[in-house]
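Why should sequence recovery work at all? Because a backbone constrains its sequence more than one might expect. Tight turns favour small or flexible residues, buried strands favour hydrophobic ones, and helices have their own preferences. The token representation captures these environments compactly. In the example below, the structure is given first.
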């Protein structure tokens, strides 16, 4: 039987069910690179502080390199008896370099060690999310560039409202994902904190130098309070919130694509590479990528809720409950990275169909606001103009026409203010072109947004 590292005071061996219950190595083994980097920085610091000789530090650092190579090569035997990645790595180090390996854990606890490893891991993943978010913004931007002139029936309440440029719609998503990237970068500032030197909870009697470890690892800050350092998981929660927000934005777009790809809409054609067929219905081309993404969003929210619940009743400082921080994050990380990759891959393959979008304008009376604004500009109080236009819509609907198909004399029955210049403003293109207000759907604003997003991508 393996001897436990903490086994000095124990007479009985751990129950098999307990061992299986408490181990984390089956999933935290993926932190081995971070664990080894952290230990090497710790060993160098111990040497600089005169605690290890330079020769001892070199032996430890090289021994850890050897352990990493074994793991990289798949030649490492992970042992459940050693609970977690930290003790698996350390015990192998000691096998390789002898009792000197046991000096590594001086002035350190697994409590500050695991916090460091996980911070390094979460930080690296956040960097990747940021990159993938850039790819997604670039893909939305590229589609938007092709569709400045394409008219989309803009909706509120998912009812036809006013015509917009399809580019404007796609650029709204650029804003969402740019905010997500900003959130990720901001979060990184609080993740990139070195907790090493907090030891178990109270600091240590050894003359350590946490600042040296921080700078060795290239982190931004050192912990200020050892109790906070070992018990804080805000960084995981913030990252999980970031991932949830990203998924929410992806999911909203997926929902639109699912609707638009339905032939009753026919606004978009899906790329074969991101669709699937049916085993029974030969005509089917299903938007599975979007459906899966919409579904996985719930799962990422679940990770955020799990962690919020895990920490809510924890007294200071480290509690073993905190071991539950890893699986939700690993799962959310995998999901958000794959989702962003799929979205960036699928977007260029979406074929929007401007003709079907244009054909719905008339049915939805998307130029009704234009008529009301036209009357208001002629001095008719807007509330009255609204009412007049409503009556005209009712007539057009009865005749199965658009407002622009009514005759001038029909229109003039509703208001003598209506002249034959009304037909210019009833054009859907004009409705978009005339919306020159800042941030609106007019071409001036859309082109300015395209430039700003391009600039953001270049920075
Ligand atoms: N596997 C543990 C975790 O993930 C490492 C820290 C264990 N610390 C302890 N005092 N048992 O949280």
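From this structural description, the recovered sequence reads:
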């Amino acid at each position: 039987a393996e001897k436990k590292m903490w086994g000095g005071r124990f007479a009985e061996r751990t129950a098999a069910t307990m061992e299986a219950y408490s181990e984390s190595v089956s999933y935290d083994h993926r932190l081995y690179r971070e664990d080894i980097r952290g230990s090497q920085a710790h060993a160098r610091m111990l040497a600089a502080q005169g605690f290890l000789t330079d020769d001892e530090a070199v032996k430890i650092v090289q021994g850890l390199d050897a352990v990493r190579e074994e793991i990289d090569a798949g030649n490492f035997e992970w042992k459940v008896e050693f609970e977690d990645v930290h003790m698996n790595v350390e015990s192998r180090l000691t096998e390789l370099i002898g009792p000197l390996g046991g000096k590594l854990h001086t002035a350190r606890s697994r409590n500050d060690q695991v916090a460091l490893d996980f911070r390094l891991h979460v930080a690296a993943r956040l960097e990747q999310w940021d990159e993938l978010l850039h790819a997604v913004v670039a893909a939305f931007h590229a589609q938007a560039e092709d569709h400045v002139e394409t008219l989309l029936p803009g909706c509120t309440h998912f009812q036809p409202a006013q015509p917009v440029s399809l580019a404007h719609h796609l650029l709204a998503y650029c804003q969402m994902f740019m905010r997500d990237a900003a959130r990720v970068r901001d979060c990184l500032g609080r993740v990139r904190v070195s907790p090493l030197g907090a030891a178990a909870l109270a600091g240590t009697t050894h003359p350590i130098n946490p600042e040296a470890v921080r700078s060795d690892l290239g982190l931004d800050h050192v912990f200020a309070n050892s109790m906070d350092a070992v018990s804080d998981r805000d960084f995981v929660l913030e990252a999980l919130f970031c991932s949830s927000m990203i998924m929410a934005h992806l999911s909203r777009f997926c929902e639109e694509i699912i609707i638009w790809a339905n032939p009753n809409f026919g606004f978009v054609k899906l790329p074969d590479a991101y669709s699937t067929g049916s085993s029974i219905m030969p005509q089917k081309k299903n938007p599975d990528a979007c459906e899966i993404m919409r579904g996985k969003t719930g799962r990422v929210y679940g990770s955020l809720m799990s962690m919020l619940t895990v920490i809510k009743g924890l007294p200071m400082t480290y509690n073993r409950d905190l071991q539950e921080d890893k699986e939700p994050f690993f799962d959310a990380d995998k999901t958000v990275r794959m989702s962003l990759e799929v979205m960036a891959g699928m977007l260029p393959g979406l074929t929007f169909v401007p003709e079907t979008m244009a054909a719905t304008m008339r049915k939805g009376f998307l130029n009704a606001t234009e008529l009301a604004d036209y009357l208001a500009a002629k001095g008719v109080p807007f509330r009255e103009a609204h009412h007049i236009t409503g009556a005209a819509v009712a007539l057009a609907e009865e005749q199965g026409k658009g407002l622009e198909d009514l005759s001038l004399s029909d229109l003039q029955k509703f208001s003598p203010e209506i002249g034959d210049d009304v037909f210019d403003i009833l054009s859907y293109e004009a409705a978009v072109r005339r919306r020159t207000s800042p941030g609106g759907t007019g071409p001036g604003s859309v082109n300015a947004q395209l430039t700003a997003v391009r600039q953001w991508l270049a920075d």
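A few observations help interpret the result. The longest strand covers residues 159-165.
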